[in-house]
């Protein structure tokens, strides 16, 4: 059974302009699924639908066989206890240290004892190479370091699914590599990752599957080799060819 089952999901702008059109997608536990495509194709919108920031106009999303009721606060809380998202903006608390930024959610949301939350937070920050920055504040960290703190903060909630929405797009190349290295490390944990990214070499390296989107639709769904080396549609061929030639 898919961990996440998406059926007929549509989203519209005002005046009924479609953003997502009849999205059907199954994602299985432990998969690393990357979503690629041109700007405006609906990639980030799909992640926002999954996490409940943008309710679908029609269609259903099922998590572990149970349909998600995005109009229910209780259902949304249950979903967000098991699924978290990291955006391209770091959104760290500027008046808190790195350790405090990572620790606060488990304590406040999951009511974990402070000692347990801090131990796990220290472990996560150490794992992504920030053990020496526990007491540093966001303005004392580089962009790459702040994004790694954001990753650790999401993982501190121990989610079953982690959504990553263009987490390197605001970073320079050196900082981008820092964050991608951290994601490579995390991808070995068996957590389900759904990644929206324009870093094609990284997508090809870490993904089990790659989803190509264009104009609010899923154009192709296959292995990295199938998508990058043997695309079936002209739209995918054109996009991949253009990206890989730069």
TrEMBL record:
Recorded family membership: Belongs to the ABC transporter superfamily.
Classification via InterPro entries: AAA+_ATPase (IPR003593), ABC_ATPase_HisP-typ (IPR030679), ABC_transporter-like_ATP-bd (IPR003439), ABC_transporter-like_CS (IPR017871), MetN_ABC_transporter-like (IPR050086), P-loop_NTPase (IPR027417)
Residues of the ABC transporter domain: 4-240
Subcellular location: Cell membrane
Topology term for the membrane: Peripheral membrane protein
GO molecular function: ABC-type amino acid transporter activity; ATP binding; ATP hydrolysis activity
SUPFAM superfamilies (UniProt xref): P-loop containing nucleoside triphosphate hydrolases (SSF52540)
GO terms under cellular component: plasma membrane
Protein name: ABC transporter domain-containing protein
Species this protein is from: marine metagenome
The entry's keywords: Amino-acid transport, ATP-binding, Cell membrane, Membrane, Nucleotide-binding, Transport
Major localization class: membrane
